[in-house]
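Intended use. Records like the one below are meant for learning the mapping from a protein sequence to its folded structure. Do not use them to infer anything beyond what is encoded.
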Amino acid sequence: MWPDSSVLRNKYGRGEMKRIGLTIIAILSACLLLSAFALNEPLHYRLASDLKIRGKGKDGECMDYAVALSSRLAANGIHGRLIFYRWHIRSTGADGSHVFVVYNLPDHSEWIVDNEIVHPKQVPSDSTSMQLVYLLSNKPDAPVDVQLQEGLNHLSFF
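Structure written out for the chain above:
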């Protein structure tokens, strides 16, 4: 049988109860945080999936995410490049630009990720930059015109 809260308050005092409560909350928070990232996932996968990286999951912040992720990957010995492109939805005035990260691992696998998808995707190593754009979106038949920004793409290796 659990003691009445007034018994606990009398035995430990209000300050002690508060400290115990905060300790329990801290332990539960740490457990939740650790469970958010499966520790058996490879480092590159955890880095690219980290929701705390600037711009991740935020509309219009692809450049912030690409720069932040490429810096983290490079700091961990993983190198790649950024792919810049412009897009236009046919039959509309909607257009814009986007950037995503493509990187290679020592096992020669190639991965792509941007701020709009949760996890990186492995892609065929012989994919062209244009194929990577469509692989990223999973909508190869979308009514969108895409133009690679080759000037930026030649300078975007990390």
